[in-house]
Design a protein that fits this description.
The complex is a heterodimer of chains A (473) and B (194). With 473 residues, chain A is an alpha/beta fold. Chain A contains 16 helices and 19 strands. In chain A, the strands form 5 sheets. In chain A, strands 5-4-3-6-7 form a 5-stranded parallel β-sheet. In chain A, strands 17-16-15-18-19 form a 5-stranded parallel β-sheet. Chain A has a 4-stranded parallel β-sheet with strand order 11-10-9-12. Chain B has 194 residues and is of the alpha/beta class. Chain B has one domain: Alpha-Beta Barrel (Aconitase, domain 4). Chain B contains 8 helices and 7 strands. Chain B has helices at residues 21-24, 44-47, 85-93, 105-113, 123-135, 163-171, 175-180, 183-193; strands at 6-14, 70-73, 97-100, 117-120, 139-143, 148-150, 156-158. Chain B has a 7-stranded mixed β-sheet. The chains are: A alpha/beta (473), B alpha/beta (194). The interface between A and B is large, with 61 and 49 residues. The structure holds iron/sulfur cluster. Iron/sulfur cluster binds at residues 64-65, 108, 110, 129, 131, 347-348, 408, 411-412, 429-430 of chain A.
Chain lengths: 473, 194
């Protein structure tokens, strides 16, 4: 009998084009997503060497990183405009489909891939963007690559990749009420740090994972890269199949049923092993807030900003000290005493329709705290359209939120949405690095529900009690 | 790409862990469409104040590190964004070798593609190099062929590198050309799929 394989090994083996001792494997790539920031130099490289795009039909492009999220056609930043024009030109020269800025399918690359059904179980998916791990939610092997690799995939539809180690992150039990998928992944990174996934592809398993919707699974896989992992994935099941049914790029009718059967067969074999295993209890997880300058610096909303002196190693003390200084926080201060002046609901982590619904539910009938600037930036044009159909935009606007067009926006502040120096933001994005949301900006990562509650209160508050209070009032 | 065989250079110590690519090159400089010219923006917010003047408390601005070509840093160097602008900025500034106890996966791959050698050493070895480089002008020699790194005061360490990365770096190869040499295999794979 054959050795039982886990899903990661199964997908990998199916994509090996060439294998030679002492070399990485040459892997075939089924879907290549492209955006404006990490592609110009790759296309330039093709031109310089008179090379073509091997499979334009397996390549799909969008603009997201520096598109304006209001007055979409007035691009004041000329260098941004050049980058967007360059992508347009490259797509037309090389025959690649582009969801341009005013296309109804435009949006953040990791939001539209799944939405359109381009993302499918068992595929190898790459993009010049580290959060490509998002697509793993469908049981695809999806990972971020650099620009030279983008060029390599464009030219050859393959990549040289060393075989990764596999890690099973098993989440037992069920998440409590008011505890989001975002809290789950933040809590894991908070506990094990920002390096535990380095060199691994993660498979998330367990009852809590099975209980998540597709959009929640995307939030979890999105942040696998923040644990250092190359990719994170979840075995496809009926939730996956029902999500994909009828989407534009999936097979239709009988063909779909055939495809669905092949997706079910991807599940890890009985007795399959992993290079490492981690187990977590979902019940123990509370809503999380990051207090420092990487996603691992993260604690339950009910706890206190750490004291550098309590760290074991001198280097850790230094790291905490530097983070507290940058963040303008005092050791020992309750997380719930941190006052914010910005709220950002958006990004490829948390800008999908269910994220907006959850946030809207918290703010319904309430007002944004005086002095807080709050933004909602839907992940795609179609998320925006759906939200408007459901009237969510009205709830947000009446509460005092700005309602924007789709894009990356304040997640990395490459367009003109940014947090000013010293400003403090409750953000549903995935990185709280120094300066990420603007030079000198201070970022606290939270779930959409927690961001919504912070917008109302002007400080962090436990959304589990907050929603209860709303219900009782 | 320039091959790397034996490199001797001045060491610059940046004794911090988890240095992410947002710090190596902040996003406002990613809008260019060329590969060149990113060195001036390296560690931008650590090197410069808001008014554009130099921050004296950041050690890369210390004249004694002028001309350094070997950067030594803490664990998990290059984590975060996949932006290849990070190795482009390092190289354009003059760094050809980066030493750390560990590197983020994507960053490490991006280095190889650009002819930058990332050398993984133990915590203790890195700390020793940092200490020496912080004290005075400190030179290291890296011999990629022999996978050895040493100074002229008795420090010596060997390091691991995958045979493939080593071959690419030693020869300064463009891997697209290598792949296209076995294009028939790709074609076969595609035919078998459909
Ligand atoms: S939303 Fe943020 S993390 Fe996601 S692709 Fe855009 S910039 Fe990157």
């Amino acid at each position: 009998m054959q050795k039982p394989k886990n899903i990661i090994e199964k997908i990998w083996e199916k994509h090996v084009v060439h294998r030679e001792d002492g070399k990485p494997d040459l892997l075939y790539i089924d879907l290549h997503l492209v955006h404006e920031v990490t592609s110009p130099q790759a296309f330039e490289g093709l031109r310089m060497n008179s090379r073509k795009v091997r499979r334009p039909d397996l390549t799909f492009a969008t603009m997201d990183h520096n598109v304006p999220t209001r007055e979409r056609h007035i691009i004041k930043d000329l260098i941004s405009k050049t980058q967007m024009d360059t992508l347009k030109q490259n797509c037309s020269d090389f025959g690649i489909t582009l969801a341009d800025i005013d296309h109804p399918e435009n949006g953040i690359v990791h939001v539209i891939g799944p939405e359109l059904g381009l993302t499918q179980p068992g595929k190898t998916i790459v993009c010049g963007d580290s959060h490509t791990s998002t697509h793993g939610a469908f049981g695809a092997l999806a990972f971020g690559i650099g620009t030279s690799e983008v060029e390599h995939v464009l030219a050859t539809q393959t990549l040289w990749q060393a075989r990764p180690k596999t890690l099973n992150v098993k989440v037992n039990g069920q998440l409590g009420k008011g505890v989001a998928a975002k809290d789950l992944i933040l809590a894991i990174i908070g506990k094990y740090g920002v390096r535990f996934g380095t060199g691994f592809v993660i498979e998330f398993t367990g009852e809590a994972i099975r209980g998540l919707s597709m959009e929640e699974r995307m939030t979890v896989c999105n942040m696998s890269i923040e644990a250092g992992a190359r990719a994170g994935l979840i075995t496809p099941d009926e939730t996956t199949i029902e999500y994909l049914r009828g989407r534009r790029f999936v097979p239709q009718g009988e063909e779909f049923e055939k495809a669905a059967d092949s997706w079910r067969a991807l599940a890890s074999d009985q007795g399959a092993s992993y290079d490492a295993v981690i187990e977590i209890e979902a019940e123990e997880i509370a809503p999380q807030v990051t207090w420092g300058t990487n996603p691992g610096m993260c604690l339950p909303v009910t706890s206190f900003v750490p004291n550098p002196e309590s760290a074991a190693k001198e280097s850790e003390k230094d790291e905490i000290r530097r983070a507290l200084e940058y963040m303008g926080l005092e050791a020992g201060q309750p997380i719930s005493s941190i006052e914010i002046d910005h709220v950002f609901i958006g990004s490829c982590t948390n800008s999908r329709i269910s994220d907006l619904r959850n946030a809207a539910e918290v703010i319904q009938g309430r007002k944004v705290h005086p002095g807080v600037r709050a933004l909602v930036v839907p992940g795609s044009a179609s998320v925006k359209a759906e939200a408007e159909k459901e009237g969510l935009d009205v709830i947000f606007k009446e509460a005092g939120f700005e309602w924007r067009d789709a894009g990356c926006s304040m997640c990395l502040a490459m367009n003109d949405d940014f947090v000013p120096p010293g400003g403090r933001c409750a953000s549903t994005s995935n990185r709280n690095f120094e300066g990420r949301q603007g030079n000198g900006a201070r970022t606290h990562l939270v779930s959409p529900e927690m961001a919504a509650a912070a917008a109302i209160e002007g400080r962090f508050t436990d959304v589990r009690q907050f929603s209860q209070a709303v219900l009782n009032s | 790409m320039q091959p790397i065989r034996i490199h001797k250079g001045l060491v610059y110590p940046l004794n911090r862990a988890n240095i992410d690519t947002d710090q190596i090159i902040p996003k406002q400089f990613l809008k260019r469409i060329e590969r060149q010219g990113f060195g001036q923006f390296l560690f931008y917010h650590w090197r410069f104040k808001d008014d554009g003047s130099l921050r004296e408390d950041f050690n890369l601005n210390d004249p004694k590190f002028k001309g350094a070509s070997i950067l030594v840093a803490g664990e998990n160097f290059g984590c975060g964004s996949s932006r290849e602008h990070a190795p482009w900025a390092l190289q354009d500034y003059g760094f050809n070798i980066v030493i750390a106890p560990s590197f983020a996966d994507i960053f490490k791959n991006n280095c190889v593609k650009n002819g930058i050698l990332s050398v993984q050493l133990t915590d203790e070895q890195v700390q020793e190099i940092v200490n020496r480089a912080e004290q005075d002008s400190y030179q290291l020699t890296v011999n990629l062929e022999e996978q050895r790194i040493y100074d002229n005061q008795g420090f010596e360490a060997s390091f691991d590198i995958s045979p493939y990365s080593k071959e690419m770096l030693l020869n300064g190869w463009d891997d697209i050309a290598i792949t296209l040499n076995i294009e028939d295999k790709i074609r076969e794979f595609e035919t078998a799929q459909h």
